[in-house]
Design goal:
The structure holds two protein chains of two kinds. By secondary structure, chain A is an all-beta fold. Helix content of chain A is about 0%, strand content about 50%. Chain A is globular, with a radius of gyration of 14 Å. Classes of the chains: A mainly beta, B mainly beta.
Chain lengths: ~120, ~110
């Protein structure tokens, strides 16, 4: 299994540009998440999904959008990029059933700079 | 409000010594806790987890202790090695959604 994959690894955007961060998992996990990590800080949840067609906001959703059309893919869309969105973005997935452990598997991250 | 925080931002230990990384949480209703290790330039990697009905859980060279009375979580690493150098995060589960709340992180530096 490839686990959780993210593309691109790095990206530089100009203020006002848009882009989509791609995330895919091949573990048949039903839950997927997007986090951002600012320098020296922990992870903040942007959006999450409990299954295809279902998404919900996390702690810091403003400026982002998501969709979940398949179990495998969970892209994150940035509209009108702002310098405050400069961060490292991590996608994660987990499997939930009646007695799940809630362990989340993380991708390698996308480092985004908005100038 | 809810918070998961770590007592010390940086911990420096000698190779071969034991390391103890601490974490405080404020939500007494949290029922699941997890420790992650993040090496430079990589995503967080699962180390060990513990449910609130347990006080202690052991893995390979790692032990997690949970003290619900004082809402404190710790990660003990035995015989710390250079490869243990990383940022360590604790996280607690919020509700039944599977969402985790992460603390700020502790940087572990292992001196040769």
């Amino acid at each position: 299994n490839a686990g959780v994959t993210q593309t691109p690894k790095f990206r530089i955007l100009k203020i006002g540009q848009s882009m989509t961060l791609q995330c895919a998992q091949d573990m048949n996990h039903n839950y997927m998440y997007w986090y951002r990590q600012d320098p020296g800080m922990g992870l903040k949840l942007i959006y999450y999904s409990v299954g295809a067609g279902i998404t919900d906001k996390g702690e810091v959703p403003n400026g982002y959008n998501v969709s979940r059309s398949t179990t495998e893919d969970f892209p994150l869309r940035l509209e009108l990029a702002a310098p405050s969105q400069t961060s490292v973005y991590f996608c994660a997935s987990s499997y939930h059933s009646g007695r799940a452990n809630y362990e989340q598997y993380f991708g390698p991250g996308t480092r985004l700079t908005v100038t | 409000g809810e918070s998961v925080g770590l007592h010390l931002p940086t911990l420096s230990v000698q190779e071969g010594d034991n390391s103890i990384i601490n974490c405080a949480y404020s939500n007494s209703a949290s029922d699941y806790f997890i420790w992650y290790k993040q090496e430079s330039g990589k995503g967080p990697q699962f180390i060990i987890d513990i449910r609130s009905n347990m006080d202690k859980r052991q893995g390979q060279r790692v032990t997690v202790l949970l003290n619900k009375t004082v809402k404190h979580l710790s990660l003990q690493i035995a015989a710390t090695q250079p490869g243990d150098s990383a940022v360590y995060f604790c996280a607690e589960k919020k509700g039944n959604t599977g969402k985790l709340i992460f603390g700020q992180g502790t940087t572990l530096q292992v001196k040769p």
